[in-house]
Amino acid sequence: MPVAPLIACPECDLLQAETPLPPRRTACCRRCGVALYRSTSHSLDRSLAFSLAAVVLLVIANMLPIAGLDVRGQHTETTLWGAVQALYDQDRVAVSVLVFVTTLFAPATELCIMLYMLLPLRLGQVPRHLSLAFRLAPIAREWGLVDVFMLGVVVSLIKLGNLAIVVPGIALWSFGVLILLLTAIGASFDAREFWLRADANRAALERSASGSAARPLEPAT
Amino acid sequence: MSLPHTTAVDAGLLSCPACELVSRPPPGAADVFATATARCPRCGARVHPRKPDSIARTWAFLIAACVLYIPANALPIMDTSSLFDAQQDTILSGVVYLWTTGSWVTALIVFIASIVTPLLKLVTLSALVISVQKKSTWRPHMRARLYRVVSLVGRWSMLDIFVVAVLVALVQIQSIAVITAGPGAFAFGAVVVLTMFAAFSFDPRLIWDPVKAAHA
Questions:
Q1: Looking at this predicted complex, what is its ipTM?
Q2: Of the residues B49, B65, B82, which one is the last residue of a structural domain?
Q3: CB distance B163–A152 less than 8 Å?
Q4: Rounded to a whole number, what is the distance in Å from the CA of A218 to chain B's nearest CA?
């Protein structure tokens, strides 16, 4: 049984009454000071927009080379997948899987889940297994390390800069924007608004299923 | 503070770790606090009053990470073989190389991400678990903030793994130089993943439980 107006701090378990906030404010725990929730407007629409943009950038970032190298007339370049494959070919399977999961699989999964949840909700539907998707999204977000990878590329280019001519690839810039978008998705997504929308959609679907002719007018709430 | 401090557990309520909904355990499930088989009525996630076996799990991950920390730093993470010589790089020698070639800022970044952060994480998490086991009431605000910083910063230790991945893929010029990943890369990656798991399994609410009891 849900206890609606109460919120328990995820870090210290203190029970607090949820209060409406003025725009652009954050409610913090009274005892330990951690951010509890923010006042957001159109949170789901913004998350959906950021997710759509991020999908495009993720594709670009993975198709184009992240960096190139010129040594005595020889040119090599690599994509992210090329790096994963190089590690795999050298029998560093575990490291290769680790790089694949944290830079490609986790962000791609996160974006797929976000689109899977948010697109139908936007269109007034409730997707199947919504709660499972909702629970998987933060796990995928936790293991997405695109920002760390970006710094890793920069550091390796600096290391090589002494020995050869390095050429930052287009994908590097795409990764930069992708990081911003992934951060924006995390910041804009509001779980409370998400569940309110899901419940509203579900109620609307039930109403239309039970026959709208019987009750042509809905009482204003 | 003189405000009353009632936690969800005190009130016999459960809060969902995924959607943060506060719910009352279903009637009849009196031992929900012991066995914790309840599910969140809204999102269906398993709801526990505290993360299950938090202390034991955190210790397990921490000890495993400590053990692997030695090969992670002792074994080479990268082998460079060129026409005239072969060179093996550990984490530390990679930092030294950056420092001696004049990239001080980069050297500092890699030093902090790869050497300071994992060590700090192991020490801090161990200290936090010990403080929780001793039911310490010492500066809960500071310890809560420490935990937040540790879980936020930990991911950046993966930096060196990505550096190796990019170098391995780029430097494959057979006639001039070839870079391959060393066994240390596996150990180092494992340390980072294990400390991340350790941070996830630690329950910061345990820091605050004895504080409450002391004030009551």
A1: 0.89
A2: B49
A3: yes
A4: 25
